[in-house]
């Protein structure tokens, strides 16, 4: 099916997310949509899949204009989308997930669904257990489930929004093979990404989005430098890998075991030194978060010990860790990091040492203005935090960290941020490593981020933890293989 | 106490539990879609009063029941509307409604206090009613009790075995994902609010035209039952069968209380009357304690075997609400 | 249109809708709405005695609502407030019974009794708090269950251990000697001491919630406990102190009911002020500055409708209907206003 987008506009408040976008997407090939975070790619694709309504503009399918009121409409026209965060139901079983959204009948087409899931899986080499709970699958497997489901519903146009985040090298290979087969079978495949290499190896042609506009369109083979210029409007680089000189041991983990109902990680040993950055790599849900949380006292380990600055803090709560200079920065900024409805200033008051009983608003206001300037936050002191953009929320979280910390534990430091903000975040963090000798312990599903900013890396694979590997000299491809299980005792290399 | 008396008593338990079953299953359906209708307690009172008044004035039981269900649906739709269209807190609106409908029932029901009205007659089923034990228990009841039996199975079948039921689960679990798959989330929420509300409303006339026929204002003994139904919805883990089982358990315990009262003269009657409420707290404690953070921390300190066992037990008791319960969702 | 003026217009609209709804209910009941409203006003503001009665009802309502704002700030629905008022009444009665024949000065006995009432309310509230924080039982259900238990406890006391000489009755326990009554203004039932207590209470809550670290931290815990924990706030301690303080205020309300109004324990000692306080809190959108005027207005409605059964043969629950309709239409209009402003591009104010 040929898709045409003509003069699409979309505003979110003051932000012009899509500004007069016109694109023609042919069938039978893989069409890349390239742009950095916040360029408007996801918005455009959500418009095409009926999730958003454009403020102006037209969508044409095979030459005739269509109006999509809802995703249901889009599916009727054969347009299906795989969202970056898989839109599925973790507490339900695979087979039930597969059937949610099936358009007709009173009873469930259980037998037909099983047969379809099996045959589509066989065709693409997917391995999905129909009776497993979706919550226990990896992101890669959840994508496979979505692909199978959309094909079962007869999708002709498949949109993939950043599908390679958080999956292993093996899964990525399988995904790309599936995409190529879909294109060969005459489907329209749209591949949304911010990674140049992926465009290079996968896409037949690519359109580049920047700040809501289409800034260029080319076909393979690509001039990568030209693509970079189009994406950012200028040359942007993360700069050289830098390391702060290492000092004394800050954090010591001895034979640590952490568990919950789903997962157990055990036998972790590690020493983290002042100024050191340790990256935790692994597919989502492989145990990185467990370790990170345990090191902050947010969950209690079942075995082993945690020492901070030579003091045994095993079994202590987060606030005890805080007093020793440990800080935890969560990924879910509005769910866990900030308090919606409270203002920036109120956050500054809360994060600071309490003085007396009554709040001195004047001092707090000055302090907040100061932080806003230092951390380059676009916002006013009396603005509720939820009205800030994602990047500014992340800056606010960093602005709330007290000076002189010993150890910062971070989940996904740059998730959802544009390149400039991401670079800025890491500059700030690295400065702390150099100047305050702070150690940083972070998890990320962006392998390049881990390789570029860490000194050493721990790799997680379904609860198993590797020995620390030096980041210097490791490639993205190698790391992708490792998080997929290569080199682990029970690593199922063949299994995606 | 003879075995015959016990049988009659147990049949009475099934009979008396019918309205609680209606309300619990109604609320279960509504909450499955992500809407908390906290107005149950007042709704039952208002529906009981209004349907009694209508039946007294029109001599029609049917109109009475219709009235009760319409009130239930209307009140529930108010909650749904203020949440979906006006973005107001479901808890706040439901709570105001539960108080207002209660006062409304006392205010408007004043002229009908103590009047005699029609009531639903029992309807033994010819052959089945003759089966020993099972007959008197299940087949010599009134039509409402039969309806309650059928409803339990039907609701369970609908939620867990049909395609629309799967969509209902999906909407309550993750509305944005259900929406992405074509489910009209808002329309479904209105629908299940109305259907669930109507069932809650049905509990009213089931009292005032059958189980506790008549209207006696503040001493009708109905105040509080709606809260029990809300608690049973949680206790049942949003499963119609488990919720109904809870309703029968409560009816059974209340009956036992009555039967045993003469043997325990030291326990004042007031204590027995409110016994369901501490019991309600206890059941909620059992199904929720596994969610408490300190339990997790304490567990981590136990030896591995004990840890595993305690976890298994807690997990077996634990209930998990539909993830989007009470959370508004915005369709673009 | 300015933000302020829109707000005022929608408020007016809300009042209008509530009045229309209630009038409709009155018409259904076969009564004249105008007459009903007239008698409500006359019954509450028509004479000095009537107004004094309004003030008598105002004090416990003011205390209960002030307490509720503390729990609401922490994101908690303290439905258990009714039971906490009752426990306040029970504890006060208990101390008065213990000390009424002692040689202690009446003032001291009264102070002890009122303090005991506050403690009683706090204990009952903390119980709901423990169930919530350590047992995962939603405070709505925990509190509600404890409400019913508290009422049963009162009945048991009145008909059992504390029954009047002879036989217990619904009229309550034996009244206390007059020296143990909070002194009232001559010719009325209004106690200035109680009034002072109520006003101080409301002022304390206003100050606590709008100017102190405690209030701000409480709000953080209420809006996002997980983020509050990561910001270093001991969330459990804050939740429990919210319950404790709220129960303290409720207990004071119960103590006032016993020492200043009824001078004994009666079955309906809480007079439903807990429920009413919840309604007021929602109506004023939990803003402490509005507590005093709106509780006064609700007290006017309550006292005014007491006469309705006598003069119009209507049930006095009409005040509840009117109050409920008011709160409901305010909630709906708040939503409508937000939508209206979104549509017309105005920034939605946060308050």
What this model shows, in words?
- The complex is a heterotrimer of chains A (496), B (332) and C (351).
- Chain A is 33% helix and 25% strand.
- With 496 residues, chain A is α/β, with parallel strands linked by helices.
- Chain A has two domains: 230 residues, Rossmann fold (3-Layer(aba) Sandwich), CATH 3.40.50.300; 159 residues, P-loop containing nucleotide triphosphate hydrolases (Rossmann fold), CATH 3.40.50.
- In chain A, the strands form four sheets. In chain A, strands 13, 16, 17, 18, 19, 20 and 21 form a seven-stranded mixed sheet that branches.
- The longest helix of chain A has 18 residues.
- The C terminus of chain A is likely disordered.
- Chain B is an all-alpha fold and 332 residues long.
- Chain B is globular, with a radius of gyration of 21 Å.
- In chain B, 50% of the residues are buried.
- Chain C has 351 residues and is mainly alpha-helical.
- In chain C, helix 2 crosses helix 3 and helix 3 packs across helix 11.
- At the B-C interface, helix 4, helix 10, helix 12 and helix 13 of B face helix 5, helix 6, helix 11 and helix 14 of C.
Concise summary:
The complex is a heterotrimer of chains A (496), B (332) and C (351). Chain A is of the alpha/beta class and 496 residues long. Helices cover 33% and strands 25% of the residues of chain A.
List keywords for this structure.
heterotrimer, A: 496 residues, alpha/beta, Rossmann fold, seven-stranded mixed sheet, six-stranded mixed sheet, 17 helices, 33% helix, globular, disordered C terminus, B: 332 residues, mainly alpha
């Amino acid at each position: 099916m040929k898709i045409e987008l003509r003069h699409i506009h979309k505003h979110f408040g003051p932000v012009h997310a899509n500004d007069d976008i016109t694109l023609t997407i042919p069938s039978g090939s893989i069409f890349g949509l390239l742009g950095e975070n916040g360029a408007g790619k996801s918005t455009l694709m959500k418009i095409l899949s009926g999730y958003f309504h454009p403020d102006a503009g037209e969508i044409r399918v095979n030459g005739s204009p269509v109006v999509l009121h809802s995703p249901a409409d889009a599916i009727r026209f054969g347009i299906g989308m795989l969202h970056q965060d898989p839109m599925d139901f973790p507490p339900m079983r695979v087979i039930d997930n597969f059937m949610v959204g099936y358009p007709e009948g009173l009873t469930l087409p259980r037998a037909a669904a099983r047969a379809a899931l099996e045959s589509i899986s066989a065709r693409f080499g997917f391995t999905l257990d129909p009776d497993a709970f979706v919550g226990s699958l990896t992101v890669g497997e959840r994508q496979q489930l979505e692909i199978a489901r959309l094909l079962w519903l007869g999708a002709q146009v498949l949109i993939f929004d950043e599908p390679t985040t958080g999956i292993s090298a093996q899964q990525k290979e399988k995904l790309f093979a599936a995409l190529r087969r879909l294109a060969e079978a005459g489907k329209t495949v749209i591949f949304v990404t911010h990674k140049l290499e992926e465009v290079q190896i996968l896409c037949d042609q690519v359109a580049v989005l920047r700040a809501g506009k289409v800034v260029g369109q080319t076909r393979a083979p690509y001039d990568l430098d030209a693509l970079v210029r189009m994406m950012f409007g200028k040359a942007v680089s993360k700069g050289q890998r830098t390391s702060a000189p290492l000092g004394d041991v800050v954090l010591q983990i001895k034979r640590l075991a952490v568990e919950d109902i789903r997962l157990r990680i055990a036998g972790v040993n590690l020493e983290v030194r002042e100024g050191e950055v340790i990256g935790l790599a692994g597919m989502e849900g492989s145990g990185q978060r467990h370790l990170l949380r345990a090191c902050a006292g947010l969950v209690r380990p079942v075995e082993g010990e945690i020492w901070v600055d030579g003091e045994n803090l095993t079994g202590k709560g987060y606030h005890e860790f805080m007093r020793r200079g440990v800080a935890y920065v969560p990924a879910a900024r509005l769910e866990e990091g900030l308090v919606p409805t409270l203002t920036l200033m109120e956050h500054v008051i809360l994060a600071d040492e309490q003085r007396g009983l009554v709040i001195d608003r004047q001092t707090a206001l000055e302090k907040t203005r100061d932080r806003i300037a230092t951390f380059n936050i676009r916002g006013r002191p009396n603005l509720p935090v939820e009205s800030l953009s994602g990047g500014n929320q992340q800056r606010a979280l960093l602005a709330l960290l007290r000076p002189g910390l010993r150890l910062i534990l971070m989940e996904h430091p740059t998730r959802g941020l544009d390149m400039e903000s991401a670079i800025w975040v890491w500059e700030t963090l690295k400065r702390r490593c150099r100047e305050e000798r702070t150690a940083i312990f972070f998890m990320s599903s962006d392998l390049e981020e881990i390789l570029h900013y860490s000194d050493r890396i721990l790799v997680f694979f379904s609860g198993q933890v590797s020995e620390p590997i030096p980041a210097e000299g490791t490639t993205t491809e190698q790391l992708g293989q490792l998080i997929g299980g290569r080199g682990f005792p029970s690593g199922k290399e063949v299994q995606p | 106490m003879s075995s015959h008396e016990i049988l009659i008593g147990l049949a009475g338990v099934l009979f008396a539990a019918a309205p609680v079953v209606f309300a619990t299953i109604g609320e279960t359906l509504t909450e499955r879609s992500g809407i908390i209708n906290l107005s149950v307690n007042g709704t039952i009172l208002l529906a009981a009063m209004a349907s009694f008044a209508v039946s007294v004035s029109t001599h029609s039981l049917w109109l009475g029941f219709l009235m009760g269900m319409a009130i239930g649906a209307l009140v529930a739709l108010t909650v749904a509307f203020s949440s979906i269209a006006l973005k107001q807190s479901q808890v706040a609106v439901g709570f105001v409604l539960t108080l207002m409908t209660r006062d409304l029932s006392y205010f408007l029901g004043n002229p009908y206090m103590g009047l005699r009205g029609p009531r639903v007659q029992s309807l033994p089923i010819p052959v089945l009613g003759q089966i020993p034990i099972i007959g008197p228990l299940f087949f010599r009841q009134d039509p409402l009790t039969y309806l309650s039996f059928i409803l339990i199975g039907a609701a369970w079948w609908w939620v867990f075995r049909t395609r629309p039921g799967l969509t209902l689960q999906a909407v309550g679990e993750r509305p944005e994902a259900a929406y992405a798959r074509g489910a009209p989330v808002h329309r479904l929420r209105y629908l299940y609010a109305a259907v669930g509300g109507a069932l809650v409303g049905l509990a009213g006339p089931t009292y005032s035209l059958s189980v506790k026929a008549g209207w006696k204002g503040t001493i009708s003994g109905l105040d509080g039952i709606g809260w029990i139904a809300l608690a049973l919805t949680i206790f049942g883990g949003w499963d119609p069968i488990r919720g109904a089982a809870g309703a029968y358990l409560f009816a059974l315990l209340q009956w036992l209380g009555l039967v045993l009262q003469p043997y325990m003269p030291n326990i004042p009657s007031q204590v027995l009357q409110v016994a369901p409420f501490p019991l309600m707290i206890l059941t909620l404690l059992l199904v929720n304690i596994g969610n408490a953070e300190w339990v997790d921390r304490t567990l981590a300190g136990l030896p591995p075997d004990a840890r595993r066992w305690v976890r298994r037990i807690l997990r077996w008791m634990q209930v998990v609400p539909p993830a989007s319960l009470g959370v508004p969702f915005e369709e673009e | 249109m300015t933000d302020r003026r829109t707000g005022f217009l929608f408020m007016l609209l809300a009042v209008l809708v509530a009045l229309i709804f209630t009038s409709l209910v009155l018409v259904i009941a076969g009564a004249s709405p105008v007459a009903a409203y007239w008698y409500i006003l006359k019954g509450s503001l028509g004479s000095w005695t009537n107004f004094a009665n309004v003030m008598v009802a105002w004090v416990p309502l003011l205390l209960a609502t002030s307490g509720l704002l503390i729990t609401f700030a922490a994101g908690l629905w303290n439905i258990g407030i009714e039971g906490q008022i009752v426990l306040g009444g029970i504890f006060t009665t208990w101390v008065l019974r213990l000390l009424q024949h002692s040689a202690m000065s009446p003032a001291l006995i009264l102070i002890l009794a009122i303090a005991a009432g506050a403690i009683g309310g706090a204990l009952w509230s903390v119980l709901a708090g423990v169930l919530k924080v350590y047992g995962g039982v939603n405070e709505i259900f925990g509190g509600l269950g404890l409400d019913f238990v508290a009422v049963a406890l009162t009945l048991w006391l009145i008909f059992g251990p504390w029954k009047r000489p002879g036989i217990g009755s619904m009229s309550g326990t034996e009244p206390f000697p007059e020296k143990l009554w909070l002194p009232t203004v001559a010719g009325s039932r209004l106690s200035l001491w109680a009034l002072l207590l109520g006003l101080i209470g409301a002022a304390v809550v206003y100050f606590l919630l709008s100017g102190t670290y405690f209030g701000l931290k409480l709000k953080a815990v209420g809006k996002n406990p997980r983020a509050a924990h990561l910001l270093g706030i001991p969330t459990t301690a804050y939740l429990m102190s919210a319950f404790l303080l709220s129960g303290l205020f409720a207990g004071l309300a119960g103590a006032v009911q016993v020492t200043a109004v009824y001078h004994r324990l009666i079955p309906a000692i809480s007079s439903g002020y807990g429920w009413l306080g919840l309604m007021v809190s929602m109506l004023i959108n939990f803003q402490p500055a509005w507590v005093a005027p709106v509780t006064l207005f609700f007290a006017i409605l309550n006292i005014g409708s007491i006469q309705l059964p006598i003069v119009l043969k209507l049930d006095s629950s009409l005040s509840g209907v009117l109050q409920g309709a008011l709160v409901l239409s305010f909630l709906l209009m708040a939503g409508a206003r937000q939508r209206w402003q979104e549509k017309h591009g105005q920034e939605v104010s946060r308050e």
